[in-house]
């Protein structure tokens, strides 16, 4: 689930999706919200709009989301430190030109509550990863593509990768958060070089990989990753069509064998583009 407020575009968007990795069942809901129906509290966390109530603070949150086919009612509690991207919480605007992007995450949120799908209610528990980002969206670059990838490692480390490709530059890097709150930064080999098994969207024609290689030489990390959805999932509304999938990885992290789960977001067309300045 994500919600976005884009004042410069006069857009407010609510997106919600559910994937059953066992059966392959998938459903999403995405809608624009009128400015008069969107409220954001001046202090603390207090977001309200049709279909969503999100309240609390940095330690504890409650989220209630409603769609035509189901609803989510969960409580989240931070059980680890926050992750500031690049160690400071700010980095160049998607790797290119102009203004910066600000982002911090709460990657360890104990989650309990319920999920109701088509009239059937399920108790849920687990760990959530919450991301908060703001800054200029680079909607004017026809070659802009990016991958945002988050990994929870068995040792307790949390890794967040940005791989950003544009006509001007390419930037692929990882912020690693350790359980004690310390962090490290490292260069990542471009994910596009190890992307494979493209899936072409029947709705937009855009192609997205469903397999990746993650190589971080300075961390002795070499992972293979694949989508765990039965087919790629594309949001076609919002600001731009994009893919959101759950994924699994195996390989080596800091020289030790690991397996784990991931989430991948991809924006842009990842099919071969011979006329692009970048691959």
From TrEMBL:
Record-annotated AttH domain positions: 15-135
Pfam families per UniProt: CrtC, Lipocalin_9
InterPro entries: AttH-like_dom_sf, AttH_dom
PANTHER family: BLL1000 PROTEIN (PTHR38591:SF1), HYDROLASE (PTHR38591)
Name assigned to this protein: AttH domain-containing protein
Species annotation: Dactylosporangium darangshiense
């Amino acid at each position: 689930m994500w919600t976005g407020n884009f004042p410069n575009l006069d857009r407010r968007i609510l997106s919600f999706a559910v994937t059953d990795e066992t059966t392959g069942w998938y459903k999403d809901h995405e809608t624009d919200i009128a400015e008069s129906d969107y409220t954001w509290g001046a202090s603390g966390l207090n977001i309200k709009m049709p279909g969503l109530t999100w309240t609390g603070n940095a330690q504890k949150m409650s989220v209630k989301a409603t769609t035509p086919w189901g609803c989510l009612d969960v409580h989240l509690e931070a059980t680890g430190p926050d992750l500031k991207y690049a160690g400071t919480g700010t980095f160049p605007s998607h790797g290119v030109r102009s203004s910066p992007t600000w982002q911090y995450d709460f990657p360890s949120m104990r989650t309990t509550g319920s999920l109701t799908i088509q009239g059937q209610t399920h108790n849920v528990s687990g760990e959530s990863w919450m991301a908060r980002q703001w800054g200029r969206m680079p909607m004017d670059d026809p070659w802009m593509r990016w991958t945002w990838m988050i990994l929870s490692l068995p040792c307790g480390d949390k890794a967040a990768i940005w791989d950003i490709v544009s006509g001007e530059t390419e930037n692929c890097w990882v912020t690693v958060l350790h359980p004690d709150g310390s962090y490290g930064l490292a260069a990542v080999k471009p994910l596009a070089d190890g992307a494979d098994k493209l899936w072409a969207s029947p709705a937009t024609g855009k192609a997205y990989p469903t397999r990746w290689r993650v190589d971080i030489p300075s961390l002795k990390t070499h992972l293979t990753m694949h989508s765990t959805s039965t087919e790629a999932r594309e949001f076609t509304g919002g600001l731009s069509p994009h893919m959101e999938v759950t994924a699994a990885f195996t390989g080596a992290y800091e020289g030790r064998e690991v397996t784990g789960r991931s989430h991948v977001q991809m924006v842009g067309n990842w099919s071969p583009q011979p006329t692009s300045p970048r691959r």
